[in-house]
Amino acid sequence: MYVDRMDLIAGLGAAPALQEAMVKIGEVRKGEPGYLGQTLLRSYAHPNKFTVVGRWESIEAAWAFSSSDALATFLKSMPAESAGAFTRTRFDGYDSVLEVDADKLPPMEEARCEVLADWELSSIGKAAEYVESRRELFALQKENVEGFVSARLRRSSGIPTKYLMIGIYTSREAAQSGQGSAKLREFVGSHPAASYANTPPGIEAYAVIHRM
Length: 212
Description:
The protein has six helices and eight strands; from the N terminus they run βαββααββαββααβ. By secondary structure, it is of the alpha+beta class. The chain folds into two domains: 2-92, Alpha-Beta Plaits, CATH 3.30.70; 94-211, Alpha-Beta Plaits (2-Layer Sandwich). Strand 6 and strand 7 form a beta hairpin.
């Protein structure tokens, strides 16, 4: 699986227009070969910040859409005033590395919070150890966090030291509760971020606005 992640900042009063546009582009994508779905997220910390995570069978499918007539038609249909309503601040592509899901997955409409963690490893030599540590961490979250839905690890398609962790929970409260688990605190204490990266990961929680 290939994932593209786009961060957007809405101008003052433009959040509803941004949400509407991103839902529409998801509908346009739906008919394209290799498209698997997308999630629209809104930051709890920065209410005018949105993230769209698109899922594709392959990088080739995602690239084909970027030059498709369907996308060109959609862009032409946007009102002229929308052009300055929001700004794209990030557009990255990732490959799937691993996923851990809850044994009994709730309906995805009940998974209302996602936590994104951006990692930049200090060297490519840390990759195998880092991935294995995330596998252990995800298993602990699955066992100890009520409201855990899924944990996913993605690696940049072009930068081998860059990773994205995605934690999916039933609510923001469920995501926060995981930090208080004694077993998780013990694991994090014995696997500090400094073991893998020169700087701590950037971690941010988002509300799920729309999922398809």
